[in-house]
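As promised in the previous annual report, we have extended the structural survey to additional targets. Below is the entry for Holliday junction branch migration complex subunit RuvA.
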Amino acid sequence: MRSPSLVGMIASLRGTVLEALGTTLVVDVHGVGYAVTVTPDHALSVRSGEEVLVHTAMVVREDDMSLFGFPDRERLEVFDLLRGVTGVGPKSAMGVLAALAPEEIAAAVSNDDDAVFRRVSGIGPKTAKLIVVSLTGKLIAVRTSAPRPTARGADVLVALVGLGYQERAAQAVLDDVLAARPDERQTAVLLRAALAALGPQTVR
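The corresponding structure token record, generated without further manual editing, is:
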């Protein structure tokens, strides 16, 4: 059960990255290390020792208190909208944002295309349809933002293993993705393609 008085208590963090691995950032703010759940491409976009500003949503339940972080307010707002959909918890909302950029989410909702959300691990047909219905008219201001380029392939594999996929299966799928997209250099695009191809069944 959420405690309304605590939700939103930590709205952002500015500090030094102590660790960026898989889906976790550890940010040192005046000597206190905050563990923040982020998307894999967000974790890949920062390095240890770098100063960052992370926009956060604090989710408090009876037996858990978690911080979810985003590189900009746009993604935070989409996360909050997704969490408002029946059947979509914070982890599922992060899964959607890991697989789809905000502009892709906005386009799918605008086109009444729930199939896009059904391809996200943990999102079933009923929930996918609810996302489209619930978010209709609420994503008009979503802007287009270009993903940050990074080393081709290597960072994607690290992210997939960090998410719990078996390295051998992840590497095989990644090889296919790289072969199919020889000119693609954006880690986020390659990661989303690999996640779509792997699916939830290969997670250990």
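The longest strand covers residues 51-61. Strands lie at 12-21, 24-29, 32-37, 51-61, 64-70. These points will be discussed at the next consortium meeting with the crystallography subgroup.
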